[in-house]
Amino acid sequence: MSFPSAALRRSLLSRLALAVSLSAVFPAFAADAVTPDGGVYRGDMRNGKLHGQGRIEWRNGAYHEGGFADGLSHGAGVAAGASGWRYEGGFDNGLMHGRGRMRFADGSEYEGEFRADEFEGRGRYTRPDGEVYEGEFRKGRFHGEGRLEMADGRIYMGRFEDDEPAGKMRVIYGERHYEGGVADWQPNGPGRFTDAQGNVFEGTFAAGILTGKGTASMKDGARYEGDFENWRFHGQGVYRSADGDEYLGAFAWGLYDGEGTMVYARPRPDGRLRDSGIWRRGKLHDAAAEALKQRNVETVLYNQPAVLQQHLQALRTQDPARIDLYLLAVAGDGREEVFRREVEFVRGQFDRDFGTAGRSLALVNSRSSVDAVPLATQTSLRQALRALAERMDVEQDILFLFLTSHGSESHELTFKLNGIDLPDLPAAALGEMLRDSGIRWKVVLVSACYSGGFVDALADEGTLVMTSARHDRTSFGCADDNDFTYFGRAYFKESLKPSASFVDAFDQARGLVEAWEREDLAGVQGAGGKGDELAEEEHSRPVIVAPAPIREQLRRWKAQPAK
């Protein structure tokens, strides 16, 4: 974030002077007197001069009341000007001096020490808009140690010079705070900034922006040390994730970009512990990766038909004495491995906890599994549904269809594999495939941005439909190095236990997702200067449609005695 740039909006003091000649000599016999500027004096006199207690009034409404000595105001007194100001306090030699309080016509007020008609020493100055300064003054200006609370809630604590912060300050703005150099009301020079979530940024600031060498210590345990540009990792640096993975190398605008090495805290699925080479936009791009991509293309062309048939033929037929559950899990976008990892977890979970072993099938687009697992394409999905229908009792058994990928505003699920162009899956096409299969009872969970746009194409009395986002909302957690998307983790890992219903698990997952999104989005907005309140329209808002007939069929399935 950058602190709002604002010069102090004030005219702190009109230079105060009693435009009064109080040293006039009056006839000794006069009890009252008129000053040369027309003021009418009533009070004590000595040797023809105002001396003792008295009051001067002018026709414009100004007045002065209090002590006098040798024709000049002296000691405690009260003075008021025609413009609306009023002062109560000490005087010396005709000038405000010592402790006093002054209130201006606009409602602003100063209370503290005066010297020769100036705010001088310690005092407190308040404005009607809520701005308050308490500290040292010199010649009517903030000068010395002080504390300034602005009308917008910012608080500056430290040294001031001529109404401006000078040198090292402590600045508080809501739940955010900063310690370090300040210039023109913004962080400038070495400093330390803590955002509302507890993330800490240290380094060199310029005009409120972290730029140059610095560190970022995140609340979740992640840490970065290196170069920054406009708050983002940019240049050379070291990043250690909360999971313990460590990257050393080049960054560009917050992403791995350039030459670098990633050392993993735990082995990757293929057993490797590090990746080195040239990175682009957070992903490794090198000769080996390019060669793998080309090999994958040839593998797909020559091996995939046989791989698909092998997996389809391995599906078991249903048990006529039971309502069986079948699983079809689809990972659509092979450019990011999170979807493959999610599908692998879900298949293992269902085979273990929900009796789908031998009755589950995965279609996965991934660079790491093209030689062993069927791809996710419109053709393979259609063939898989047909094969499942042949093995199921389509009037009794239940199909759980899980699809995870990126999604578009036009409500199409992304099917992609590096090096191969695949048609995406429109909501209408998926609905047509399911109707053509003849499978009556279905649970369909679509985890993707804008996935709520699939509801109308899929919904019927025999189908429970769940989506990770509303039709006009994005979902979260699709990064390549994640094990789950946000909704996948909330639903399958955190909420779907063997004893839970699919609907109850959705209700719990929806609450978890909202909490995680609020934490993430508040952090982004706080760092970007948008404020800490999360706008309602940022949430993904998962959707569920659960007609009574499918819920009753799921109840019957759950009520069956265990095998």
Automatic annotation (TrEMBL):
Span of the signal peptide: 1-30
Domain (Caspase family p20) ranges: 377-449
UniProt entry keywords in alphabetical sequence: Repeat, Signal
Gene3D superfamilies listed in its UniProt record: 3.40.50.1460, Histone H3 K4-specific methyltransferase SET7/9 N-terminal domain
GO terms (BP aspect): proteolysis
Record SMART domains: MORN (SM00698)
InterPro entries linked to this entry: Caspase-like_dom_sf, MORN, Pept_C14_p20, Peptidase_C13
Matching PROSITE patterns: CASPASE_P20
Domain of life: Bacteria
GO molecular function list: cysteine-type endopeptidase activity
Family matches, as SUPFAM superfamilies: Caspase-like, Histone H3 K4-specific methyltransferase SET7/9 N-terminal domain
Pfam families: MORN (PF02493), Peptidase_C13 (PF01650)
Protein name according to UniProt: Caspase family p20 domain-containing protein
Species this chain originates from: Thauera linaloolentis (strain DSM 12138 / JCM 21573 / CCUG 41526 / CIP 105981 / IAM 15112 / NBRC 102519 / 47Lol)
